[in-house]
Protein 1
Amino acid sequence: MSQFKKHVFICTQGPYCGFDGDTETIFERMKRQVGAYGLNEEIRVNRAGCLNQCGHGPILVVYPEAVWYSNVQAEDVDEIVATHLIGDRIVERLIFDAPPGNNKRVDHYPAAVHAFKDATEKLQKEREALRQATLRTLQQNAES
Ligand code: FES
């Protein structure tokens, strides 16, 4: 049995969806709407990294149904919450019916967006290197 009645993942941290719409506002609005229904314990809304559906964004997915929505805008959030998360009916006009797997389509983005993606990946590598260095330091301190 799932821990939550519904679990929503919104691509807020992927490199492309944030250029297709205001993903942070989508996230904040959905959290607020779910809270307004008093359902924070039953419906979990999470930020997510890239969901491998770039170019169709903003993308979000609702589990346990594994229903994907594309081109979601902030003004669509109230309908998704009321219809799907509360009413258990899919919002057909936003459904993303893609085959399983990676469905990235990113050629249409301007060079600046690709540069943003490259910079983001570089930062993630630096963060991971820092985490590894910190782990080594902790292990060394524990052994001494
Ligand atoms: S950037 Fe959102 S799915 Fe890849």
Note: The longest strand covers residues 6-11.
Protein 2
Amino acid sequence: MRSDDDLIGWARAGDGAELRFGRGDDDDRAPRAEDGGRPGPAPGEHAGIGRRRFLAASVALGLSGVAARGRAGVLCGAAVATSPGPFYPGELPERADLVVRPGRTERARGSILRLSGVVRDRACRVLPGAVVEIWQADSAGRYKHRRAPEQDLLDPHFAYFGRTQCDADGVYRFRTIVPTSYRFAGVTRAAHIHIRIAHPDHGDMITEMYFAGAEHDRVRRQDRVFQERPAGLRDGLIVERVPIAAAAVPQAWRARFDMQLG
Ligand SMILES: [Fe+2]
């Protein structure tokens, strides 16, 4: 597992297939090449890194050789390695639905988020079986952790963290909620989800995913942890949310976040 001392940003070019979202439903679909929904950005660009900006950042970081690797020059993922933060749970149960606890019917407070993406290796090959862990704050900005404040005020219906495995196409899927920003130890933190990916042959990486939008942008400007991420690559941690139109599920969103290992 990388530490803060290993902090480095990277993103790679490749020839990954175009992957798109569906629209207007609340099923478990994740990005699939055959989906004919909303025209989506090229893989990697969804996370906020345009190809031109990626190449500029790559040159600045001495990664131009990596950027030139892709046959078609199409990004297939972007990530910035970060520390786990103070609230990494350690042991995460196998759990892809953080919204409704097993055996219960009440759902967590907050807006539902269908989070999915593809995990690839440095050659942009999908990684079936890669493990993906997420941990995050709830709708009130609280973590479930013995070192986190206000443990008596947690959302009893929210699961806070979970682990899943990528399928044969390298796709992972979680149902969670959109977290809220918080302050801890005097530091303002914009809303984010911590993610760890691991594969037996490709090591592991911890990163963070943030949300696009004016209010999130405003808080991010005060978030010195985010601001310390490598300039030019940190925007690649920001995802656009797509509303899910199903009337029965108000305040539901879909977001896609691809990552690379190696
Ligand atoms: Fe956090």
Note: The chain has one domain: 4-261.
